[in-house]
């Protein structure tokens, strides 16, 4: 049976031993594979210290409904990221392109760090009474079953489809400062760091798929069940979290639901806004870099990790995957 053991960021660079610790400086050109416009994918070791600070129960706009949505999203991340890592790692030895291999190392390291920090924030909210450990175990069991039943190309196609979702949701959030302003900074900074890195590595799983699998029919055919499962699972988990949280009086809960529903599911909310970019995925010849996010990435790299970077204190180490030179 396929297993999905925890993956650490250090494990991402171990197999080939071609990564080295660096300061925050990034080289001009790190890795480009299929196209020339791929940004670098550095592995940033972060520690947001969730166990050491008070967190707001309703961390998005003091809204129980919308906060439950983002918590549902966070609850599936640790196991989901491990599934992504394993589905890409299956193909690591077949890539045959040193630059793409380096980006895969960056992808694995970034996703491992996301899983670690989401585990930490989920644990903090579990202590406040949210059943996040229980959700994590169910997601783990569900994904183990998927890993056992689905072929490796299909697992990778699911990862590519979900990476497209995280890319377009991240782009929406990074380009809407009013959304960031509604988050309590302790949680918001963490979520936006994750969104920035999703944008950095958005083409990696796609490029591995194109190089090692390449079927257009499987890619687009997988997006439909992915969409159904993703939305149904998130909405279901959100309702479960709302049901188990009765701290807010009934009147406030209704008010939160009305406002929160339009922020997440309304035509100008999260899902309504990303719909056009979702459809782009079905175009033959589509590539994630068709949505040019390089300027956006520059802006957030500077904001978070520049000289006066808002997250320099949380950044412990940066590892830059190096491109192996041909022997
Ligand atoms: Fe991630
Ligand atoms: Fe990702």
Keywords:
12 helices; binds fe (ii) ion; Ribonucleotide Reductase, subunit A
Structure notes:
Helices cover 61% and strands 5% of the residues. The protein has helices spanning 9-13, 64-89, 98-127, 132-149, 152-174, 177-181, 185-200, 204-212, 216-244, 250-264, 270-279, 294-305, and strands at 19-22, 43-46, 315-321. The chain has a three-stranded antiparallel β-sheet. The structure holds fe (ii) ion (2 copies).
Helix content: 55-70%
Largest sheet: 3 strands, antiparallel
Number of helices: 12
Ions, cofactors and other ligands present here are: fe (ii) ion
What percentage of amino acids are in beta strands? Answer: under 5%
Mean pLDDT: 90
Q: Regarding CATH, which class?
A: Mainly Alpha
The strand line-up of the biggest sheet is 1-3-2
**Rg from alpha-carbon coordinates:** 19 Å
Domains counted in the coordinates: how many? 1
Low-confidence residue ranges: 1-5, 14-33
The assigned CATH architecture is Orthogonal Bundle
What is the first-to-last residue Cα distance? 36 Å
Helix vs. strand class: mainly alpha
Q: Estimate the global geometry from the Cα principal axes.
A: globular
